[in-house]
Amino acid sequence: MTAATHSTLFPQVPDSADAVLDGLDPEQREVATALHGPVCVLAGAGTGKTRAITHRIAYGVRAGLLQPSSVLAVTFTNRAAGEMRGRLRQLGAAGVQARTFHSAALRQLQYFWPKAIGGSMPRLVDRKIQLVADAAAACRIRLDRGELRDVTAEIEWSKVTQTVPADYAPAAAKAGRETPRDPAEIAQLYAAYEDVKRERSVIDFEDVLLLTVAVLQDRHDIAEQVRAQYQHFVVDEYQDVSPLQQRLLELWLGDRDSLCVVGDASQTIYSFTGATPDHLLDFRTRHPGATVVKLVRDYRSTPQVVHLANGLLAQAKGRAADHRLELVSQRAPGPEPVYTEYTDEPAEAEGAARRIRELIDAGVPAAEIAVLFRTNAQSETYEQALADVGVPYQLRGAERFFDRPEVRKASVALRGAARFGGNDSLLDDAVDLPSQVRAVLSGEGWTPRPPAGSGAVRERWESLAALVNLAQDFGTAKPGATLTDLVAELDERANAQHAPTVQGVTLASLHSAKGLEWDVVFLVGVAEGMMPITYAKTDEQIEEERRLLYVGVTRARERLHLSWALSRSPGGRANRRPSRFLDGLRPGSTATTARTAAGSTGGIERGIPGTRGSAPRRVQRTPARCRVCGRTLTDAGEMKLMRCDDCPSDMNEGLYEQLREWRADQARRSGQPAFCVFTDRTLMAIAETAPDDEHELARIPGVGMRKLNRYGADVLAICAGQYAGGDTDQD
Predict the structure, then answer these.
(1) How far apart are CA 321 and CA 333, in angstroms?
(2) What pLDDT, on the 0 to 100 scale, is given for residue 181?
(3) In angstroms, what CA-CA distances link 166 with 88, 178, 187, 599?
(4) Which of 32, 62, 339, 369 is the most buried (most CB within 10 A)?
(5) End-to-end CA, the chain
């Protein structure tokens, strides 16, 4: 699945190098004609960065300044690489290599393995989890499914940051990572994982980069052979480069400077995988003579959407924020973003589904609508809500279009018709390419009208309908085209993973939506605890969550809906509040200083050993005011929460339930009622504040010196996600 675009699907190839430059704005044209020396393109969301760099490559090729086979363009997803290849083909620059870092490295490693190492290359495994599970079994460490996933992520982070098992613990501490297990245990699992791979003669995706780097470092003859092949490099999404990928790029370049990088520090949302914008931000330091071009003309979104996006970044902090780009919309005005508050999550999903149904009934194509959420777990509620109102949908990140069984069968049928169609009576009345395709696919389940509902039958029909629509566009763009021509087009698209548009509302996580765009975007679950996510503790993590919301906002071309729910389920406590990122931006709100749970290092600040009784003194309190609306509080319960009962809460519900379970255990141990440990109100206040040290915990009404000394360590450990259970001192 790719987002629909408004450009012609099959444009005419420009007839000259100068024609390649037609339609570019002044900054894009400057990028396209800057073919010598290092070039850094700082490109905001929707500013046409892919257009600029593909036209740069095509202009160089068409002008005879670049040989297609000498150019290597690298990006981060197969979809983005496929889109780049497709655009270059349309510009008359076929033959340029556009690949992901892994794909380019794998190709080189496979070619040079016999010469560099000898023998056959080990098998590449595409999933690590089973190997990690086997490593855990060898270490006699039990991991549940969630822990398996988290440990696997830690191993991947270690490898892309070039951290060996022995160095994992100090490296993780230096990076401020919240490790899912004890760092020494993860280091043990990491080492065992590497042993399992060696025993089975397999390698993983990170090994592809590591081994390619090793070969190029150790074998200068091979490095020179690669450099003789590739002399010009383009790197898209440069803010997402990891230290390992940067090292590989440096080895490809050697001592040359024919490099063009493109990126936006404000769209750095993958730091948990080892990505860092530092290479982009430091580019001019490493290359003092670089040409730097800023793209800020936003051709995607209306001024109203751009205004909200700029407002989000205006409140940002940190190095990436210091280099933010102020976007300027080039589109006509549109509707203001819509903000909606719901009582609970099912009501929020139903409300979004109703609005989507109304939009589709009013003529908005389903493929031009997306529902974006923070976590994949939120998807199910929206799948059900859309199904209930008869709206077809598709899950972003699910099975690739050309891998779907019905698409594979349809491709076989079309290929057969192209070869032997003259003997097929089914095609006797088909007078042109679109009618031939409709006739062939009718035997595979396509019908002129879609089936009712939105289940598997509807999904299969949508896939076939996408092929029918593609045939219609292909026939219009290329009169006289045959089934054989269409089959060749499908083969090229399958190789590039350039899928046709499927008519269904897109459901996607914010991370998987990057690089896509729609006319209408619903950003759902924009509440504290979800945006920013509850485990984002440090300043850096909070700012990455802000950038993630920025990416979501900038996916919308015309209409943007933001919503949140006050409780998780019907009848639940209405204790949630809208995301702090919207403070001062949504109607009726005021800008506030975002609360950060910890300093830049995160974690828990422990006292000096032996000073358990030296907790901070009580501070003299001024009259209590609601931290949401500012009203003076007089009710004891409200004073404990520091907010009015009817004001929205930013309580972490998961943390609250953990605290309740811990309190029940403490009450059982001491033989006293649960409220004698902490009252419900105090636990709610703790869950809302999520204190990081004794000073913050001591300020919460209901936490006295005695309880701070008795329970403080446990409570702070629970808030930090580091509580392991066990006895509590009862003196």
Answers:
(1) 27
(2) 83
(3) 45, 18, 7, 27
(4) 369
(5) 62
Residue 388 has pLDDT above 90, yes or no: no
Q: Both tokens of residue 554?
A: 């900038």
Q: Cα(293)–Cα(374) distance, rounded to whole angstroms?
A: 32
User: Whole-angstrom Cα distance, residue 667 to residue 683?
Assistant: 14
Six-digit token string for 726? 């066990």
- The type of residue at 197 is K
Which neighbouring-strand residues pair with 731? none
Angle at 528 between CA 527 and CA 531, to 5 degrees: 70
CA distance 154 to 179: 8
Q: Does the annotation place 136 within a ligand binding site?
A: no
Q: Is the pLDDT of residue 360 over 90?
A: yes
> Is 387 one of the annotated binding-site residues?
no
DSSP 568-611: SSTTS-----B-GGGTTTSTT----PPP-SS-TT-S--PPPTT-
Ligand-binding site membership of 728 (annotated): no
Average pLDDT over residues 716-729: 74
Decide which of 635 and 380 is more confident: 380
pLDDT at 634 over 60: no
Span 154-163, pLDDT tens digits: 999 999 888 9
**Rounded CA gap, 78 and 101, in Å?**
10
Q: Is 43 annotated as a binding residue?
A: yes
List the structure tokens of 561. Answer: 């809906």
Q: Does 3 show up as a binding residue in the annotation? A: no
Backbone angle region of 259, left / alpha / beta, with phi > 0 → left and psi within -120 to 50 → alpha: beta
Query: Using one digit for the tens of pLDDT, what is the confidence trace for 194-246?
Result: 999 999 999 998 999 999 999 999 999 999 999 999 999 999 999 999 889 99
pLDDT in tens, 460-506: 787 888 888 888 888 887 888 888 888 888 887 776 556 666 678 99
- Take residue 76 and report the two structure tokens written for it: 């981060």
| Residue 416, annotated as binding a ligand | no
Question: What pLDDT was estimated at residue 580?
Answer: 94
Look at residue 429 and tell me whether its pLDDT is greater than 80: no
Q: At a CB cut-off of 8 Å and minimum separation 6, what does 311 contact?
A: 584, 585
Burial 520-549 (b: 16+ CB within 10 A, else e): bbbbbbbbbbbbbebebbbbbbbbbbbbbb
User: Looking up tokens 């590449």, which residue turns up?
Assistant: 124
Per-residue model confidence (pLDDT) at position 623: 47
Mean pLDDT of 248-252: 95
Q: Which residues pair with 495 in a beta bridge?
A: none
Q: Within 10 A of 405 (CB to CB), how many other CB atoms are there?
A: 10
Q: How would DSSP label each residue in 112-142? A: HHHHHT-SPPPEEPS--HHHHHHHHHHTT--
pTM score? 0.68
Q: Does 115 count as an annotated binding residue?
A: no
CA distances from 612 to 582, 699, 701, 713 (A): 40, 17, 21, 10
Does 228 show up as a binding residue in the annotation? no
Spatial distance between the Cα atoms of 42 and 478, rounded to a whole number of angstroms: 37
* Mean pLDDT confidence for 646-656: 75
Q: How many CA atoms lie within 13 A of 464 on its CB side?
A: 28
Grouping H, G, I as helix, E, B as strand and the rest as coil, residue 332 is coil
Q: Where does 144-204 have alpha helices with state H? A: 145-160, 168-175, 183-200
Q: Please tell me the distance from the alpha carbon of residue 1 to that of residue 20, in angstroms, as a whole number.
A: 28
Residue located via tokens 């907010």: 643
| Mean of pLDDT values over 39-62 | 92
- Per the omega criterion (within 30 degrees of 0), is the bond before 532 cis? yes
